[in-house]
Design goal:
Rossmann fold; about 40% helix; 12 strands; about 230 residues; Arc Repressor Mutant, subunit A; 5-stranded parallel beta sheet; alpha/beta; 4-stranded antiparallel beta sheet; 2 domains
């Protein structure tokens, strides 16, 4: 038997109780640690704030649809999401993949096949090294798009993360506000200097002591310097 602390964690986001109970029971027998969310809002919150190795996601959910969850998650975390849905038309399948799903399993399904697909996906994920960059006492995870300290997400927004990731990947080099904005902020968004300065201020607060490495370069802009002052 697999020790509980070594079991892959799977979140099931499914509002049909009979289907959900069958999934929890079948995945548990296959050696997975499972959790259940029966509404879209709860599922999204748990995906963003808890650690799971894989998510099984229905598309037709109360409060927030599976498509809305996919759209939000793909820019925030890198957990693999397998869509499990009775909505099997081609546009729904293609849209699921376009929005970041790694697999699509139509309902009804065979539990044995689903387990095999999950194991294959987890094996592939384990074989792909994550891209992480240290910054003092925090870690910038380029794949998961989070900055963490001791495993805790520091809560950077998507734009704040873009700024940190860009400067950390080019540590030691100073960039103008315009250059940073062009790389980190959306083209149709607010790229004025004052906006970027506000992002920098908030980033420093969220990073805590590591924020001291995000330095202002007089008459140029900003840089991340890995050396202590």
């Amino acid at each position: 038997m697999i020790p509980p602390h070594e079991r892959p964690r799977v979140l099931v986001v499914e509002d049909d109780l009979s289907v959900a109970e069958g999934l929890i029971r079948g995945l548990g027998k296959a050696g997975f640690e499972t959790s259940l969310a029966m509404a879209g809002d709860e599922g999204l919150t748990r995906i963003l704030h808890e650690r799971f190795d894989l998510v099984l996601l229905d598309l037709m959910l109360p409060e927030k649809s599976g498509f809305e969850i996919l759209e939000t998650v793909r820019t925030r975390v890198s957990v693999p999401i397998v869509v499990l849905s009775a909505r099997t038309d081609l546009p729904s399948r293609l849209r699921s993949f376009d929005q970041g799903a790694v697999d699509f399993v139509p309902k009804p399904f065979f539990m044995e096949e689903l387990v095999a697909r999950i194991r294959a996906r987890l094996a592939l994920t384990a074989a792909t090294p994550s891209r992480t960059l240290p910054l003092a006492d925090v870690v910038v995870d380029l794949d998961a798009r989070v900055v963490t300290r001791d495993g805790e997400d520091l809560g950077l927004t998507a734009h704040e993360f873009n700024v940190v990731a860009f400067l950390r990947e080019h540590a030691g080099r100073a960039y103008s506000r315009q250059q940073i904005a062009e790389h980190a902020l959306p083209e149709d968004g607010d790229r004025i200097d004052r906006t970027l300065d506000t992002h920098i201020s908030r980033i420093r607060k969220k990073l805590g002591p590591a924020g001291a490495h995000l330095r202002t370069v007089w008459a140029i802009g900003y840089k991340i310097d890995l050396e202590p002052r």
